[in-house]
């Protein structure tokens, strides 16, 4: 039975208002007037809470801000100017309440109020559980809360101040009001980005929150309001304001630099006069987001507090984007499936119009808007002055002679008088000289501006394109013709009188198209087999480390800016290898791998990108698993991406068409070898993914076209998930890494050797690559020793090479050991119910699956079992109730459930394999980390 905890009530009031000036306001559901108590007399406030609980109140609350001593919860009901002339509490139409923001004396903390799906919350799209609620705050970019409170139906993250903020004047009150309001707006934006709603109306300074230690009796249920975790950090007001500013900047970036005026196209036009409106500004003022988005298939999902949430084309519901977040007239796209709009990008109205209709070109969009009548027409101030002077003189003043444009420096270099001759010239020139940045990749021609006739052009920290994908682009006839036109002195011979004179010309697109149609017939066009951003080994064991094109492998090395890999010894000795392994051990010290074999799998996956030329892809799917959320699987996946480069997707597409589109986009647009899909849930059984993992080539039809795109499958595909359930043909094509902190709520662990692991890895990226290269080079120098083959499939050479490298380096465990492989798994929502029932029957004793089934209540009136049949997971209840059911068959099915859920915590309980009995039957045992308040009793 859930009852009031007076100690917890007193402790919370002291935490929140122990240092507050003024009075503490306590109220309850149905009586928001409540009572106030001097902050120095919190024991009286706690006694009042106990009295309210004794009367069975549905909810008991404390106001976050303390209030002035003359605080009165009464309000005039006869008008804002109290026409009755009486004090508020004597007004004939008085209204009771908890007061307003102006009654606040001090602010001790900031807060959030996250409703969770369940009883009392009829709204759709709420976060489903505590982990999801915590994920909202993590996604907001706001700092870690000092205290987390579970209200019984939701979560209160609390950010405690180091000292109460005294709201002594109007300026301080307005600053606090603005901070609290915008704090909630940032959290609302983060929730919407995950497809969930958040009630932003909880940001007023008169906000009341349930008191930890009290009972939430909403919907007739009795649930405790309690503190679930706490940390020592407190914040200054300045720190919270700075954190809010940083979070706001990510949502609503600074306005871009104003576009330059559209170039004049007729004589007599000049720049716009002061005060004129550009086409983009005029468009933004005159057109609503509904008029921009609805014609291209977007639909409004809902509106809240001035923010509109949208559903992308192709979906019937769900949050895909928002407009006017934080009061900005901008579109913020959450989804990565809204091409041509990009995920996690913020667009102005002009930017959205440019992306939707003009390939992202702001200047082209501005010209189109100007032609459609947007913006102030271009006017010449000089013409206005001449007209005024003409009025004075009584005669028109003639226009001055036009000023000729500056002469272009142009030399005759390339004759395109004959398109056939131009095509022949391009056939020989493509891939060398000034066109050395052209390559053949698959069946298309691509261009990289980092490779030219002078060799590799290194990136600098100031370059905009630093992500790899923007440096390699497919070219068409128009782009190629334009590049040649501006690179060479292109001309045509034109007959002038009796002579032929060269005149500037455009390179003919027909000649460009002729060459692009047959890239295999361009003799100097080099084959591009892949793009790398860090060194890799050639098949002969040498290292590709010089930037630029490597003829031996067909790889183009485009190192990231600032990356420096220390020189690796030509002949690494045991000391070098030992130091390299210690570097990896330091990075991985905080991850509790289930066994050494699982750790070896991760280290092997970390080594694999260095072997893409020695052991070419495809590779197995790398599945990084944990039993509990918060165990660190996403961080573990990102380590490899930060070291080698790659892409990250927050979710795996849930339908085949979207899956194919995502794979095609990753393989044709990006270049990093690591491709991560995070938080995969449900049952993964994908024929598309299974096919991808067995072929080094990917073919897919281009969206909206009958043509096909072909790309090299040169990635290490990675997924993360809790207790992953993998079926179909995927299990034997999956490499598993499993971590297990061995505790509930693993996200609360502290005391890691490296506090900021992300920052540490990025700062030590060059040294980590040096360590990995050292380990591989030592193996190469030793003659590439490998252990006996365990399989003969297409992955055998890769597995043997990685396993040999790990063994030579003395790293414990075997790569892709059979003990780390699994059969089909299963997801379930009933696991906690099953564990509680089993624990009630056996306590901490060991048992077999058959013994447990013997205690299931199958309806026998003679000796009903203590375990309800409905507590069995999956379809085991139905199997057991069938006439003539085989106990051995049901025991086998239960055994699979237990193996797949080995180590999975639920409700403070976990089942673990406990060896075998004398008949070689698996024994199981349940361990408890729960209290009776969790409803667990042996």
UniProtKB/TrEMBL annotation:
Region (Disordered) residue spans: 450-470
Lineage top rank: taxon: Bacteria
Name of protein: Uncharacterized protein
Organism: Catenuloplanes niger
């Amino acid at each position: 039975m859930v009852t009031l905890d007076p100690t917890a009530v007193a402790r919370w009031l002291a935490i929140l208002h122990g240092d507050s000036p003024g009075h503490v306001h306590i109220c309850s559901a149905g009586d928001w007037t409540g009572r106030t108590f001097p902050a120095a007399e919190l024991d009286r406030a706690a006694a009042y809470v106990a009295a309210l609980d004794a009367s069975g109140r549905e909810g008991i609350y404390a106001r976050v801000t303390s209030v002035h001593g003359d605080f009165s919860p009464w309000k005039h009901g006869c008008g804002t100017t109290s026409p009755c002339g009486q004090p508020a509490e004597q007004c004939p139409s008085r209204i009771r309440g908890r007061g307003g923001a102006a009654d606040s004396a001090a602010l001790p903390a900031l807060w959030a109020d996250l409703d969770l799906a369940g009883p009392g919350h009829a709204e759709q799209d709420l976060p489903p559980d505590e982990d999801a609620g915590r994920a909202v705050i993590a996604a907001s970019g706001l700092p870690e809360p000092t205290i987390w409170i579970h209200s019984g139906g939701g979560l209160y993250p609390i950010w405690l101040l180091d000292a109460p903020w005294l709201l002594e004047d109007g300026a301080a009150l307005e600053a606090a009001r603005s901070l609290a309001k915008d704090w909630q707006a940032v959290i609302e934006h983060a929730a919407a980005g995950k497809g969930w709603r958040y009630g932003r109306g909880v940001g007023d300074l008169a906000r009341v929150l349930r008191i930890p230690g009290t009972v939430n009796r909403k919907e007739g249920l009795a649930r405790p309001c309690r503190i679930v975790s706490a940390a020592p950090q407190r914040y200054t007001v300045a720190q919270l304001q700075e954190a809010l500013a940083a979070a706001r900047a990510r949502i609503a970036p600074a306005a871009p630099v104003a576009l330059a005026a559209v170039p004049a196209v007729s004589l007599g036009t000049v720049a716009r006069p002061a005060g004129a409106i550009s086409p983009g500004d005029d468009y933004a003022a005159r057109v609503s987001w509904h008029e921009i988005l609805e014609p291209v298939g977007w639909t409004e999902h809902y509106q809240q507090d001035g923010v509109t949430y949208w559903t992308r084309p192709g979906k019937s519901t769900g949050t895909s984007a928002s407009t006017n977040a934080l009061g900005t007239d901008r579109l913020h796209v959450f989804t990565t499936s809204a091409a041509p709009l990009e995920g996690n990008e913020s667009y102005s109205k002009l930017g959205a119009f440019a992306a939707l209709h003009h390939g992202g070109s702001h200047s082209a969009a501005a010209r189109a808007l100007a032609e459609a009548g947007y913006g102030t027409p271009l006017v010449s101030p000089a013409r206005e002055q001449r007209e005024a002077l003409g009025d004075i003189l009584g005669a028109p003043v003639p226009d001055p002679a036009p000023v000729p444009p500056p002469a272009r420096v142009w030399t005759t270099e390339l004759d395109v008088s004959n398109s056939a001759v131009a095509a022949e010239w391009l056939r020989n020139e493509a891939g060398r000289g000034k066109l050395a940045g052209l390559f053949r990749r698959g069946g298309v021609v691509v261009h990289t501006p980092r490779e030219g006739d002078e060799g590799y052009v290194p990136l600098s920290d100031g370059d905009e394109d630093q992500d790899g994908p923007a440096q390699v682009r497919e070219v068409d006839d128009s782009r190629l013709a334009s590049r040649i036109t501006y690179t060479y002195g292109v001309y045509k011979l034109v007959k002038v009188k009796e002579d032929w004179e060269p005149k500037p010309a455009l390179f003919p697109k027909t000649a460009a198209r002729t060459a692009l149609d047959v890239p295999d017939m361009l003799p100097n066009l080099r084959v591009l087999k892949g793009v790398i951003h860090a060194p890799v080994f050639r098949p002969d064991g040498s290292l590709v480390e010089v930037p630029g094109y490597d003829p031996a492998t067909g790889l183009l090395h485009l190192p990231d800016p600032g990356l420096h890999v220390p020189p690796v010894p030509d002949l690494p000795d045991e000391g070098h290898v030992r130091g390299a392994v210690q570097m990896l051990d330091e990075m991985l010290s905080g991850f509790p791998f289930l066994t050494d074999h699982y750790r070896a799998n991760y280290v092997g996956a970390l080594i694999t990108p260095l072997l893409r030329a020695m052991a070419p892809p495809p590779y197995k799917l790398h599945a990084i698993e944990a039993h509990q959320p918060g165990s660190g699987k996403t961080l573990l996946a990102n380590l490899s991406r930060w070291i080698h480069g790659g892409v990250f997707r927050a979710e795996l597409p849930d339908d085949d068409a979207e899956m194919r589109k995502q794979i095609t986009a990753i393989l044709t647009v990006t270049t990093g070898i690591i491709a991560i899909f995070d938080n995969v849930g449900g049952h993964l059984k994908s024929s598309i993914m299974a096919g991808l993992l067995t072929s080094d080539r990917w073919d897919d039809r281009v969206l909206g076209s009958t043509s096909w795109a072909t790309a090299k499958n040169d990635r290490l595909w990675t997924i993360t998930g809790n207790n992953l359930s993998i079926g179909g043909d995927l299990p034997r094509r999956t490499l598993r890494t499993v971590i297990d902190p061995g505790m509930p709520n693993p996200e609360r662990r502290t005391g890691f050797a490296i506090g900021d692991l992300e920052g540490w890895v990025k700062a030590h990226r060059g040294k980590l690559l040096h360590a990995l290269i050292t380990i591989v080079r030592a193996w190469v120098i030793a003659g590439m020793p490998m252990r006996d083959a365990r399989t003969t499939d297409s992955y055998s050479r890769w597995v043997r090479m990685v396993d040999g490298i790990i063994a030579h380096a003395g790293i414990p465990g075997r790569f892709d050991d059979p003990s780390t492989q699994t059969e089909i798994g299963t997801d379930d929502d009933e696991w906690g119910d099953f564990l509680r029932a089993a624990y009630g029957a056996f306590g901490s004793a060991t048992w077999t699956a058959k013994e447990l089934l013997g205690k299931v209540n199958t309806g026998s009136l003679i000796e009903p079992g203590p375990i309800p049949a409905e507590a069995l997971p999956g379809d085991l209840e139905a199997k057991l109730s069938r006439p003539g059911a085989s106990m051995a068959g049901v025991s086998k099915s239960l055994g699979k459930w237990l193996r797949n859920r080995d180590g999975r915590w639920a409700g403070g309980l976990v089942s673990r394999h406990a060896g075998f009995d004398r008949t070689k039957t698996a024994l199981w045992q349940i361990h408890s980390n729960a209290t009776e308040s969790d409803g667990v009793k042996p």
